[in-house]
């Protein structure tokens, strides 16, 4: 065999390895902390979304537990500053949740998991994606790949979907929705619009986009935060006098401006912040927790176990009391930084030193979508469906602000404000507009709603995704 032919064969072999590596996925049949085989189909994998910097997005794909060949497919994005979508999977609408019990860090154990009966995978297949690059297990081999923003990460998600559907053509005919909550509410309508533009241009693969859904979403508009003042007044956190002072003296800076322009407003803001410290903002009826400072022995044991598992311990979360809602974040940190967990999930060796729920301010990110409202108007004007929902006990992004910007779209009402029901009781309230837009509140829901009211949120999803009135 001559040298030239051998060279060509080696190049072909290398190309096949690279291509197969791109498409490589992991079928996950078991996970640490869960007894027995998983009772659902879980696939994980990576998709390269930036060839220049070798950046890859990590995903969890869970097939519908109903009829995966006919049920819709949802791309789900989580909120926060570069937060891992594992939060959505394990805290909100996925088929597994942590058993809430004291975790003592005994060698060889991880926090326990149990099956979650109100998973959204009862009604749809869900692609949970760690986005942007740097969130969760998504990574870049070139550090410059972490320098992304709202626009660029939206385009990378479009690239992700094109490649994912190319590798999963059996799902191309399924109805497809883009979904997300909290901060992802700013990204979702932009991604939906980008997909619709590709459809109009006749680009392949032809994704069967039907609409999008956002929960407790931000828009980038001032109303996202300004609505906290009337909301907190309405639920009795701030007094009439403080409310009136803020409304009169804090024009245009009712919450978002950290440096109020006048003394009266500054004093009012200080009182407001002090009162906010008395409640748990994500669900105002829940316990306001004090985080425990571990004893020296606890700290030593905890650190030793995690260092044995990962070789790194840079961002351990605070350890709250077991009966605090935030305890699940502590459990997730321990679970996701376990070597067996990573092996079962198919995490690439050396790609991630330490899993953290959110990377806050330690990686560059450009906020270049000033407002997402125009995308809501554009995409619904093209005939795509939209569900906007809010937990009504959320003081982070109160439903009053969301309701306000939905009204600002000036769509005609086709179904007046009314209760929607589950088991004969109101589960929230809803209103439907032209342009296929539905707004709904979830009674007892917080930030985010499925974390606190999973049964009601699954009922809401089932009805809406089946094009039935709530």
UniProtKB/TrEMBL annotation:
Gene Ontology BP annotations: proteolysis; secondary metabolic process
Record keywords, A-Z: Disulfide bond, Glycoprotein, Signal
Signal sequence bounds: 1-23
InterPro entries on file: AB_hydrolase_fold, Peptidase_S10
One Pfam assignment: Peptidase_S10
Molecular function GO labels: acyltransferase activity, transferring groups other than amino-acyl groups; serine-type carboxypeptidase activity
Source superkingdom: Eukaryota
Similarity remark: Belongs to the peptidase S10 family.
Protein name, per record: Serine carboxypeptidase-like 18
Organism: Triticum urartu (Red wild einkorn)
């Amino acid at each position: 065999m001559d040298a030239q032919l051998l060279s060509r064969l080696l190049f072909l072999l290398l190309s096949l390895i690279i291509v197969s590596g791109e498409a490589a996925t992991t079928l996950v049949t078991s996970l640490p902390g869960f007894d027995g085989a998983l009772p659902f189909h879980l696939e994980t994998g990576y998709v390269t979304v930036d060839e220049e910097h070798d950046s890859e997005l990590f995903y969890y794909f869970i097939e519908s537990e109903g009829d995966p060949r006919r049920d819709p497919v949802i791309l789900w994005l989580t909120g926060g500053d570069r937060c891992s979508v594992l939060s959505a999977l394990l805290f909100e609408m996925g088929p597994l949740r942590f058993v809430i019990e004291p975790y003592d860090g005994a060698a060889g154990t991880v926090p326990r998991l149990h099956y979650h009966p109100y998973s959204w995978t009862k009604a749809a297949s869900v692609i949970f994606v760690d986005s942007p690059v740097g969130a969760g297990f998504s990574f870049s081999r070139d550090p410059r790949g972490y320098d992304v923003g709202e626009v660029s990460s939206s385009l990378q998600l479009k690239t992700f979907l094109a490649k994912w559907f190319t590798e999963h053509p059996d799902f191309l005919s399924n109805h497809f929705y883009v979904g997300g909550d909290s901060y992802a509410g700013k990204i979702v309508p932009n991604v939906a619009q980008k997909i619709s533009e590709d459809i109009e241009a006749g680009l392949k693969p032809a994704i069967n986009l039907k609409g999008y859904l956002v929960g407790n979403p931000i828009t980038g508009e001032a109303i996202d935060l300004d609505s906290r003042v009337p909301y907190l007044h309405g639920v009795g956190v701030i007094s009439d006098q403080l409310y009136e002072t803020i409304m009169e003296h804090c024009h245009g800076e009712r919450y978002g401006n950290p440096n109020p322009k006048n003394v009266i407003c500054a004093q009012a803001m200080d009182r407001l912040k002090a009162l906010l410290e008395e409640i748990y903002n994500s669900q105002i009826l829940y316990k306001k927790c004090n985080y425990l400072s571990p004893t020296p022995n606890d700290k030593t044991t905890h650190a030793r176990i995690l260092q044995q598992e990962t070789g790194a311990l840079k961002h351990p979360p605070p350890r709250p009391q077991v009966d605090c809602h935030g305890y699940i974040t502590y459990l997730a940190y321990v679970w996701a930084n376990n070597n067996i967990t990573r092996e079962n999930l198919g995490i690439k060796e050396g790609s991630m030193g330490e899993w953290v729920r959110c990377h806050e301010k330690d990686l560059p990110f450009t906020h270049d979508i000033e407002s997402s409202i125009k995308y809501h108007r554009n995409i619904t004007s093209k005939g795509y469906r939209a569900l906007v929902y809010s937990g009504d006990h959320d003081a982070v992004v109160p439903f009053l602000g969301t309701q306000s910007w939905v009204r600002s779209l000036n769509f005609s009402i086709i179904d007046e404000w009314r209760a929607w029901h589950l088991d004969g009781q109101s589960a929230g309230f809803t209103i439907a507009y032209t342009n296929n837009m539905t707004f709904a509140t979830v009674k007892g829901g917080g930030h985010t709603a499925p974390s606190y009211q999973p049964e009601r949120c699954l009922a809401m999803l089932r009805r809406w995704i089946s094009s039935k009135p709530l």
